[in-house]
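Re: your question about Integral membrane protein

S., sorry for the slow reply, the queue was backed up all week. Below is exactly what I fed in.
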Amino acid sequence: MSPPTPEPAPPAAAERTQPGAALELLVHGVGGATPCDMLGDPRTVRVSGDGTAAMHRRADDVRAETDPDRFRDGPVPEAYCWSNLTSGNGTRALWLLLLPFMVVNLAHWMRPPSSGAGRGPARLYGVLVRLVALSLTVLLTAAACEVALDLTAWQCAGTASCVESRSWLGFLSAAEGGWWSQPGRRLALAALVPTALVALLWYLSHRTWSAYEAQRPPRGEDEQDGRPALGRPGFWYGRRLVARLRAAHTAAGLLTVAAAVAGAAARHDRGGDTAGAAVGWGIEGALALCGLVVVGVVCRRGRSERRLDNRIDRALVAWLPGSAAALLALAALYASWSRPEWRSAGSLPGDAAFGVITLGQGTLILLLAAVAVRLHRRAPDPRTALHGLAGPAVAMLACALGGVMAGGVAQRVADWLDGPGTPGTGRGPLAGPPVLLSWQAAVIPVLLVLLLVPTVFLVTRTAHTARRLAPVVEAEYAGEDPDRVRTRRIAGVRAAAGLTDAAPALVGLVSGATLLLGAGALAGAWATGEVPGEAFSGAPAFVDGVAEGAQALGSWLVGLGFILFVTWGRRAYRDASARRTIGILWDVGTFWPRAAHPFAPPCYAERAVPDLAWRMSSWTGRTGGRLVISGHSQGSVLAAAAVWQLPAGTRRRVALLTYGSPLERLYGRWFPAYFGRVPLADLHREVHCWRNLWRRTDPIGGPVRLPAEGGKPEVDHPPLRDPVVYGRTHDHPLPEPILGHSDYQADPTFARERTVLLDRLPPALPLPVPQQRTDGPDDADDDPA
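Result:
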């Protein structure tokens, strides 16, 4: 690839009197693509953008606008490459550890449409999701406190046999009698670990806003009334919300650490030290008050979308984390007071903390489900995933992922510190992690067994569907000599592609089972106060053995899950191919802005959508030419979102070509308020012309199901044949592959439909150079969610 060159200067005024060339703006899908692959030329030049996301052209097409006669037979191809937004340098592999935050952020955008239900339920839905997200921050911080404070500083450092095999803990040993040997001082020192974790999350969130949330859209304050959500000026500009939520979550994490440190010292002082007890009550009261402020900040307001919200709540952003940090420092000083008689025994009371978090999450999920059902009943759509319950189901999965990570790290660290013993069973020096984590681990094997039923059902149904499709496939290739192997393979690919449509039922089943089993684990932990194997010790030997086996297997599975997280992230840090694989996950999960959790991986669309909208607006305004934006897979979602952001005058000069598109099949079903039937119909009416190509063998793309309306033809093209030919022909002497989700441009239909779209656009006319946009007042207007 040739070195990047700056974008050529705009044509002179005399040149703008000629009709401009047509432009095809190509947007790739998940997994990324190189400019050379997209443009079919090894010599490409970056004409705009940077090393993260950029527009590329073939070297011969850099100044195509100055010689439009060369492109009378087709448009000038220009490729937008955005894959480095999600799978660039190695540090982004660490985003894998932010998976629960990303998943709960998706739940925010799965809200059913609020048509006919008023703004109240929609606002309540957003508040509940943000509270679930806040609980995840507290949960993972509490897990770090469990490892550093309870297992290491309190249990291991307070046990001589544990310290003997861990020489690096010698200076903390109670037997040594040094300055750090007192339990409060050990806890204060160990608090540096969860504090560093919270600081790292704050730093990552703060650093990424400049590359994502700071990208301003091309439009000003026009066209607000009645616009779809994705067409609002501030939809892709979430700087203020992320800053506010970042302050609240950072404070929540620091307060969690402070409560763990101060709580242990306060409980000791209430056993006899009146002055210490008073100070402890005061600190705990201040922590509770600050926690209420954090909850209030999270509940107070959602996204500002109807206007460009440039303001930052600087006092709040600085004051809230600063106050929490000051309370943490005060708690550390309080715990460090000399208490020679204090000895650490057993474990810190983590059961109550994890139990309250689990109970709170379950309650919030149930409330969220009730609100989602009410919203869906006001505007029912049979295509909506899980009848509107997709958001609560995904939020439940986010909590489960958080629990797996929290329990996994606690179980594995406890096993490591306890040596040959088994934590929590009395057969080792450590009391072990909270009992609730053992109960949660015990239900994981049960959940896996339950998943075998739908797995077997789906495999059986897919095989049956493939057999049923065999005569259909042969009928579509009438005149060809039937080949049983070829037919079976094509039918099998089609049947497997239909598994995507079973995802809502599978997610609903897993989520519901997780909720019920989690409730059982919580009830078992609180009712017995023992690990599952010991709780059933008085039962028949079979029941006792099953309970103990489930707890042991679940503990290892939880620990294995956490190890896989770390291992996969480490491999992706070193291996570019593994990093691209993780990037595909982020391509799907981080399309949406960070509206619920500020520590989620950053939203790449807040960079990509303004990039595309700016390019389309500036090019059509400068040249007066015609433009077709063609997006594949996830690129079609970015293309549609960018078209929504265009001013009306620009949309009339733009055609939309989508292929392998999940716009309706995935986004329309899972995110009905933003890509449902009504928003997509609005996009069909607003854009000048739109065509969608799809295949029955595609597991991701599908039809958008928009009929002809207002003189505009149906959006969907009839399904493309895949493979193009059934057997060998003179034009295709070798067997043609089944393409599925790839290589749509290789089909002759692609070029024909692109030509039809360009012919339907208004003729290229000279247009005045657009004036520099100026922003209006920075008033905020909250989105319902």
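The first strand starts at residue 23 and ends at 27. The chain has a mean pLDDT of 84.

Happy to talk it through on Thursday.
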